């Protein structure tokens, strides 16, 4: 709480601050309170604090946090010798229907009480409406009304969105480069050329039912794949590896500023004991001495029965992750099983002939499988959320901090496998273990493994990523905005005709939705999953940051709108950082370098093209001419096994082509890999090692160069600690001298005075 106004001068405005003027909010909205030096509140030292009015000394968010702390620990009876306590238990057994802090006014109009600060109305007018999307966020007012925990979330989301702007600009430039150079791409030109692609007969893509097909039937697909599979892809992958480091390092600096400005520097140490969960305290039967504080604290010893129960719970988590992997395999089987059906339908249906060049059987299979996978993801996600919360409740973590960390790791591990498994399959497994005609590889000895398009698998990865990422964002915004609004509209239907004096503030808020203790957890989870999409697979889709940017601009206003208008006021909570999410983001940043290096090397066609350009090209005037013919091997149709041989061969073809580097049928090493295959594989591995090392060196150098805490913030923290210590010691000295003057003097009192004077001198020296 405040003890003295901050005397450190504010940063001097630069001459270019006028550029940001259109994005500014009024000063009273941005900074509703002056800045103070602060110290932990103590009733014994009340005259030390700047108390103008005892009724408003504690902010509403602090008051509701104190009240909630008391209510969750308030005893109300005993049952079978056990104490019963806490408002949560009374809500669960139906004694009360709800417990929540009240909003200060209606969001669309000010309160009649002239003393009301109308902060909810101000937040709605200046923050929660979409026309204000280009304005900065009033973080100090958010913190004052909702507490530091929600304030930190919106600060992080706003900073993440700002940084996405730079990634979106570079990604759009890379995409435009692909669009402008589409006609210069020699690979797609050769595929579309009737005298080249039209004369190349490709081997069937499935057994028996599929026909031979001409390479130029994939002309449009190969042209569009160049939008994402070009030289700019490599540049963008390296850029994003550095961007994610800059984002995380600059966020640490931004977070350090907020820690100082919001008095959270020593928060963790002060709050650990206060944050014990009531559920944990109820189970504690013993106490032990803390080796640091030397104070008795509650402990809970686990029995053998509890260890067995926890083992079963963890097996449950593994079971659900196994269920996701099984569902992914089911989608793969679907892809393998329906490909022949799509090929037959498109071949025999006349109405589909005009779009056959664009909608190939491969693309149709990929799109439908992506939609099916998205539906399965949503269903499994809905079910697992309940399971993860139940398992974490059964573990009975000691503090709220531990509870959230355990739940976060369970949910994130599940969501990681759930959302990214299909993208990992397309990126790193599809088309890699196909075999060759006459010796195909089969899944479960029944379904033949999928092949990539002659132009590569990157376009399919782009399709998969777009559908899952865009679908999740659209569905998430529907859930966040429309569902609460519909429930609130339905809940208020009985009260619409009641006058205001019969429909009080508590009843109006009761008809709103409950934000819940895990409301913010789901917001973080949604954004971190999106962060994975734009970092782990960004080499396949440079427009992913642009999609994320547009979604986040909407997300900030949707989250603020629903929090201000559709939900009860949540209980305020303190937080000095984004918690374990920081470690998760760091881990994903490191993993993204590896995944993007593998995507460029193995999923895109860049390395084979470069090897051909420098080692195998024979045309000096047009080095890439002949690449398509070079990348396709020859197979003799008479060598087909009966289970692979197509039913018809209307063109009486004697050979067909397939995507691989193998010797032709009349060679002494027929159908074994050529030396070019091993050259390309070596080049891919060398590229991965070089790219990873270059990006990691740059990342760690940038992280080392950028200090986590700005120098001026360090200086302010030191000065505040110095002044606070000095004020407190001088106050103690004053009180002791006052006691001496009142005549209560003895040798021990004089020693205390001397010791306090020494502390004052020591703090000045420090």
From TrEMBL:
Q: Give the UniProt keywords, A-Z.
A: Cell membrane, Glycoprotein, Membrane, Transmembrane, Transmembrane helix
Q: List each copy of the Anoctamin transmembrane domain by range.
A: 142-720
- Record's keyword annotation contains Transmembrane: yes
**Pfam families registered for this protein in UniProt:** Anoct_dimer (PF16178), Anoctamin (PF04547)
TM region(s), chain numbering:
153-180, 231-251, 310-343, 363-384, 411-429, 528-549, 584-604, 685-706
**What InterPro entries does this protein map onto?**
Anoct_dimer, Anoctamin, Anoctamin_TM
The segment(s) forming the Anoctamin dimerisation domain are: 2-139
> Where does this polypeptide localize?
Cell membrane; Membrane
Molecular functions (GO terms): protein dimerization activity
Q: Which GO terms describe its cellular component?
A: plasma membrane
- Top-rank taxon of the source lineage equals Eukaryota
In terms of one coarse class, where is the protein primarily found?
A: membrane
Q: How does it sit in the membrane?
A: Multi-pass membrane protein
Family of the protein in this entry: Belongs to the anoctamin family.
Q: What is this protein called?
A: Anoctamin
Gene name of the record: ANO5
């Amino acid at each position: 709480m405040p003890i003295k106004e901050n005397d450190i001068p504010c940063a001097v405005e630069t001459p270019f601050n006028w550029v940001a003027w259109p994005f500014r909010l009024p000063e009273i909205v941005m900074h509703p309170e002056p800045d103070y030096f602060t110290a932990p509140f103590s009733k014994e030292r009340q005259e030390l604090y700047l108390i103008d009015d005892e009724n408003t000394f504690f902010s509403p968010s602090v008051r509701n946090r104190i009240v909630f702390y008391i209510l969750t620990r308030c005893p109300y009876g005993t049952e079978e010798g056990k104490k019963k306590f806490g408002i949560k238990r009374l809500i669960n057994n139906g004694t009360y229907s709800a417990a929540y802090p009240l909003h200060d006014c209606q969001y669309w109009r000010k309160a009649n009480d002239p003393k009301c600060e109308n902060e909810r109305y101000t937040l709605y007018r200046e923050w929660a409406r979409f026309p204000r999307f280009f304005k900065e966020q009033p973080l100090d007012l958010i913190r004052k009304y909702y507490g530091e925990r929600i304030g930190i979330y919106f600060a992080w989301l706003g900073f993440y969105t700002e940084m996405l702007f730079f990634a979106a600009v570079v990604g759009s430039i890379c995409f435009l480069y692909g669009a402008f150079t589409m006609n210069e791409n020699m690979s797609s030109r050769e595929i579309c050329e009737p005298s080249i692609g039209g004369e190349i007969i490709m081997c069937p893509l499935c057994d028996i039912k599929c026909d031979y097909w001409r390479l130029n039937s994939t002309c449009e697909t190969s042209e569009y794949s160049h939008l994402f599979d070009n030289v700019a892809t490599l540049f963008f992958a390296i850029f994003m590896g550095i961007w994610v480091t800059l984002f995380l390092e600059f966020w640490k600096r931004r977070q350090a500023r907020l820690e100082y400005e919001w008095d959270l520097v020593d928060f963790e140490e002060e709050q650990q004991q206060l944050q014990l969960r009531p559920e944990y305290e109820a189970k504690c039967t013993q106490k032990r001495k803390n080796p640091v504080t030397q104070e008795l604290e509650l402990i809970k010893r686990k029995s053998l029965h509890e260890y067995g129960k926890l083992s079963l719970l963890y097996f449950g988590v593994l079971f659900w992750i196994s269920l996701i992997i099984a569902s992914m395999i089911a989608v793969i089987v679907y892809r393998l099983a329906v490909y022949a059906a799509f090929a037959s339908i498109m071949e025999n249906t006349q109405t589909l002939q005009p779009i056959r060049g664009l909608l190939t059987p491969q693309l149709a299979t990929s799109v439908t499988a992506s939609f099916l996978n998205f539906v399965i993801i949503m269903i499994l996600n809905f079910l697992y959320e309940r399971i993860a919360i139940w398992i974490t409740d059964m573990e009975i973590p000691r503090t709220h901090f531990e509870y959230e960390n355990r739940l976060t790791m369970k949910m994130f591990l599940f969501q990681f496998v759930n959302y990214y498994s299909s993208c990992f399959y397309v990126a790193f497994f599809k088309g890699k273990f196909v075999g060759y005609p006459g010796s195909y590889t089969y899944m479960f000895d029944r379904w033949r493994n999928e092949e990539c398009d002659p132009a590569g698998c990157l376009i399919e990865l782009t399709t998969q990523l777009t559908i899952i990422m865009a679908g999740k964002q659209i569905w998430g915004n529907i859930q966040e905005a429309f569902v609460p609004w519909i429930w609130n509209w339905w809940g208020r239907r009985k009260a619409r005709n009641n006058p205001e004096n019969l429909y009080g503030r508590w009843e109006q808020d009761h008809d709103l939705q409950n934000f819940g203790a895990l409301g913010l957890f789901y917001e973080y989870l949604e954004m971190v999953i999106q962060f994975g999409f734009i970092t782990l697979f960004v080499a396949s889709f440079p427009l992913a940051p642009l999609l994320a940017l547009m979604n986040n601009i909407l997300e900030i206003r949707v989250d603020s709108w629903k929090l201000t208008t559709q939900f009860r006021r949540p209980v305020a909570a303190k937080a000095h950082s984004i918690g374990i999410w920081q470690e998760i983001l760091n881990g994903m940043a490191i993993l993204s370098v590896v995944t993007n290096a593998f995507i460029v090397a193995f999923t895109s066609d860049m390395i084979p093209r470069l090897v051909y350009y420098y080692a195998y090209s024979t045309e000096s005037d047009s080095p890439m001419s002949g690449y398509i013919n070079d990348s396709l091997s020859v197979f003799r149709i008479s060598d087909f096994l009966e289970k692979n041989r197509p039913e018809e061969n209307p063109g009486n073809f004697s050979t067909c082509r397939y995507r691989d580097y193998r010797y032709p049928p009349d060679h002494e090493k027929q159908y074994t890999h050529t030396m070019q295959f091993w050259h390309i594989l070596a080049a891919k591995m060398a590229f991965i090692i070089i790219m990873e090392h270059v990006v990691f060196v740059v990342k760690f150098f940038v992280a080392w160069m950028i200090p986590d805490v700005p120098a001026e913030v360090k200086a302010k923290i030191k000065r505040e600690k110095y002044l606070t210590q000095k004020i407190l010691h001088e106050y103690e000295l004053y009180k002791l001298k006052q006691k001496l003057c009142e005549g209560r003097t003895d040798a021990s009192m004089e020693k205390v005075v001397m010791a306090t004077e020494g502390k004052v001198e020591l703090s000045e020296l420090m």
